Description:
Blueprint: H1 4-9, H2 19-38, H3 45-52, H4 56-62, H5 66-81, H6 90-105, H7 108-119, H8 124-148, H9 150-154, H10 160-178, H11 184-203
Amino acid sequence: MANRSDRKSRPVSRRPGGRSARVRRAVFDSTLSLLMAHGYQSLTIDAVAAAAGVNKTTIYRNWPTKAALVQAAAEDRSANVITTKITGDPERDLIAFLTSVANQVTSPVGQALVIATLNEANDPQVRQARAAFWRVRFDAASGLIKSATMDANAAGLLDVEAVIEHLIGPLFLRAFITGAPIDRAFIKKTARAAVHLAWCEAAGP
Length: 205
């Protein structure tokens, strides 16, 4: 029979996706649900903790501010729902990407997140969280854009961020300003226009 010192020296086996993952999931889900229901101003760490069934110190230890918590929840959701897969078919990849972005920004959660950043635009913490969120999302999409605009990118003149802006800008315009439909024909046209712009830019004056 193993003695006590032997048992202490053995590494502890941890199940992947254990308690910490469940806590994280519960906190993020509760954060987004409460944001949708009550808006950013009324969202509190105490309410999230109660809804998630965790101690509020657990939340503060990982996300010290409300803005940081919402940012983390938004990044987690986007990482799970926004498609940046590269298959070798540039047009299909861009359409899949834009379709996933459209589904996100027209969903109740996506709209609540955008509205929160607009309503709280004067809050320094929100502005900082928003900038950090978009930095992560632009980095995640950059590989897809470079693959889809390979010929233009080879010239060394491609502004990847500008291409991403031209891809997703029209979606936000329709979703939050004009209310025009975001259908497959519109998404396909937007993808082609962004790639064409990249090629024209790389060609120079």
